[in-house]
Amino acid sequence: MIGSPSFSNKRNTKQTKSPQPKPRIPKVLFQPETQKCFRAGANLLIRAVEPTLGPVARNVAVSEIFQRGKPPELLDDGATIARRIIQLPHRGHDVGAMYVRQMLWSLHKEIGDGSATAAVLFRALYNEGLRHIANGGNPMILRRHIEHITPLLLNHIDAQTTKLAGKEQIALLAETICHDNDLAKILGEIFDIVGEFGRVEIRSGTSSKLERTYTTGMSWKGGLVSRSMLEDHSTKRTLYENSSVLLTDIEIDDPKDLATILSTSLRAGITHLMIVAPRISDRALEMSLMKSNREILQAIVVKNSEGTTKEQQNCIEDLAVLTGATPVLRIIGDKLNKITIQNFGRARRAWANYDYFGIVGGNGNPRKMRSHIANLRTNLLLAKDETDQTCLRARIGKFMGGIATLTVGDHSAVEIHARKKLAERTALAIRGAINSGVVPGGGVVLLNCRKILGELMVASDDEIERTACRMLIATLEAPTRAMLTNAGLNSSEIMSKINMLGTGYGFDILGNKLANMNACGLYDASSVIRKALSSAIHSAALALTVDVIVHRKFPPDSYTNS
Amino acid sequence: MTTLIDSSADYVYGFSGTSDFGVANTSCFAACQTGLKRSDDNGLTWYSAHSTKQQLLNVAITSVVIAPDFHNEHLILAGTAGGLLRSQDDGESWTYIVLPTPPPTISALAISPDFTQDGMIFAATLEDGVLCSIDRGNTWVAWNFGLLDLNVHHLAISPTFNKDELLIVGTESGIYRSTNGGRAWKEIELPCGFRTVLTLSFSPTYSVDQIVYAGTENDGLYQSYDCGINWQRMGQDSLNGTISGLCPNADGLLLIHEGRVFLSTDIGSTFQPWQPMANNSLEATAIFAPNSLNAVLAGFTGGVLLRI
């Protein structure tokens, strides 16, 4: 019924060759086709992702979609592999695959890692759930029980979490994510230094080596208001040593205001001055550029162009702490023609070009500066809004003294690109791990959670709850089993040995031995495991409730257009 | 034995000597307000370290360091208020090293224990943070990533620097630590908050005990048992006030507290005025005894140098 009118439309379109959009022909699937197709599609996508799990992960080659003749991409990141699978030929399978793909990509965007773990967990729980439904179980009741148990598991993961400290520990964690020893070591050093908040830029290099540089100084968006203020044309910037700094959020319209600033500066014995203001009028600018004025006082005016008004206020606040200046602010009734010597701050070096201005070695009180940073960190912990968090991170990162730049090199352009992506992904996961801590690696943290499920199963009177616990116990073993299988090992045999050794023990695949993961220094980021488990359980529980599939033949316009 | 060596200088900032100071008859140097002083007999007699050919006699030297293998590599570096002086021929000739402008005041110098191999020297400055040279002191660049406070009073280098690349600096607002040879710094919290740290020193048996000492401007002595990560107050009420000099050696820990020299023989738990200087009325400004209490150099206000 649904398809008939659309079909006739399609036929007409073919005959007349009109520029009408292609018709969408929905296909409707009912049980048992729904489960069968959904499962097949999800499993197919997960099979493509699964080889990337564990320390001996393998690559997946993906041919270029739009440019023929280019070499295939070699990927070892589950989410990106899933992202490259745009559509499956079978419509029912496609729904299952796209459902998992969306889950993996969301996870990747949020925490940068854990997609293969989530995929394996999803498959295990979904398949277990289907078995329960096939035996007459109700998916809605099952879902309710599963989602009721999930917080217990997450709390147990939290209980196993320890703080990540030192470059060695960070490097060990990085290695479990990227499996690249050199990259892990260098990221360990960088994040030990910059911490959770520091700015890290990852760039493609030209050599085969990995290099890191640390650039000092704080800079803000803005820059010189006039080309005539540029003093060094070779470096395209003006640099003042032992410069004074005046900060204001008031526009300098009246030349008299500027005259007051300049005369106060001269009285204070200032020879170099940087004025940070939102705007300066042409008349005032002309006055500042007068040769007679510049002979007695070197002054530049820079525009504060930090995004929003709030960001501009933050910039002034930070600059005030850094330089020891008292800003001239409209909101408290200050006026530019009433400034005093106390309004000026000092800096060892102040520089500006057309796009940015910066301070190196501000003369502010270092104790106040450290307190200010401590306050920003506290605010970050309390901030709920993502924009506020980003803004606070950027401010703290600036105070930390600059940018850490990692230049990624390798033997070919393709390898450099792949390694850069890997570095970016690892960096994101490390940030999360520094913030949230680490848990025993190799899937052991999940295996440890089986204990509370076992206790709950014994204590529960509800048969479906006991079933949910049984299913989750099997699910929690899935990542370890997959890692062992990927390494070419007998997962059943090793799992039974791990079970005999008890809590905290797992299999060190690279060392080829059973070991206590904490003692070996094998860690996973707590945030990654938490989010992967949570996403997989919720997604699988929801997928079990799917009873009908409605699917269209053609991909969305965004794909066909590109 | 207490010997008055020289009273012409008006202030002694610090000392430097070879690792076998007091054991063999070796050279040592004193950074003084009126220039660099030198002794070739373990501090018994002193003379100007600058060659008479160059008129550097009146330059105030704020810190001095020599190559660890001074017997073979005759490198001397002297910090001044505004630059660095370098001699690689045992003080015969000196070159003025250009530093990034505006020129900073050098407050401390530290040389890598593995200098023969890595050629690294670090300079703490009162305005520009830490400067580093990786070419035996010829060129210098600022290495201040993460160093929020650029007013650095002292800098200490780990005795096992070739393995751990550990550096610690004392600044106007506390302690910063680098575990990658000064490329980047991390702030360390002291129990007393953001207090000024004037002096730092690694334990002579650091590779075993991992102890580091820090002397503060107003809050006494602090000690770390974990390579400078966590700190705890030492000496309690007996050491309230300024700790301006620290010198741990095999016989104990010598320190300058409010201008007087104290000794601890129990890893900093208790302190007593050090007897050889107990009756000295002068204010101590620097102390040097790298190996034992058998040979100690002390500098005082008024430029008095004592060798005990």
Quick recap of the structure?
Chain A is 53% helix and 16% strand. Chain A contains 22 helices and 17 strands. Chain A is elongated, with a radius of gyration of 30 Å.
Overall geometric form of chain A: elongated
Low-confidence stretches of chain A: 1-16
Structural class per helix/strand content of chain B? Answer: mainly beta
Strands of chain A, total number: 17
Q: Hey, roughly how much beta strand do the residues of chain B contain?
A: 35-45%
Largest sheet of chain A: 6 strands, mixed, barrel
- The strand line-up of the biggest sheet of chain B is 1-28-27-26
Termini separation of chain B: 5 Å
Radius of gyration of chain A: 30 Å
Q: What low-confidence regions of chain B span 5 or more consecutive residues with pLDDT below 50? A: none
Q: Helix/strand/pairing class of chain A, anyone? A: alpha+beta
Write a structural description.
The complex is a heterodimer of chains A (562) and B (308). Chain A has 562 residues and is of the alpha+beta class. Helices cover 53% and strands 16% of the residues of chain A. Chain A is built from 22 helices and 17 strands. In chain A, strand 10 and strand 11 form a beta hairpin. Chain B is mainly beta and 308 residues long. Chain B has 3 helices and 28 strands. Chain B has helices at 115-118, 161-164, 206-209, and strands at 3-6, 12-17, 28-32, 35-39, 47-48, 61-66, 76-80, 83-87, 95-97, 106-111, 121-125, 130-133, 141-142, 152-157, 167-171, 174-178, 186-188, 197-202, 212-216, 221-224, 232-234, 243-249, 252-257, 260-264, 272-273, 284-288, 297-300, 305-307. In chain B, the strands form 7 sheets. Chain B has a 4-stranded antiparallel sheet, with no helix packed on it. In chain B, strands 2-3-4-5 form a 4-stranded antiparallel sheet, with no helix packed on it. In chain B, strand 12 (130-133) and strand 13 (141-142) form a beta hairpin. The longest helix of chain B is centred in the middle third of the chain and has 4 residues, at 115-118. The radius of gyration of chain B is 18 Å and the shape is globular. The chains are: A alpha+beta (562), B mainly beta (308). The interface between A and B is medium-sized, with 25 and 28 residues.
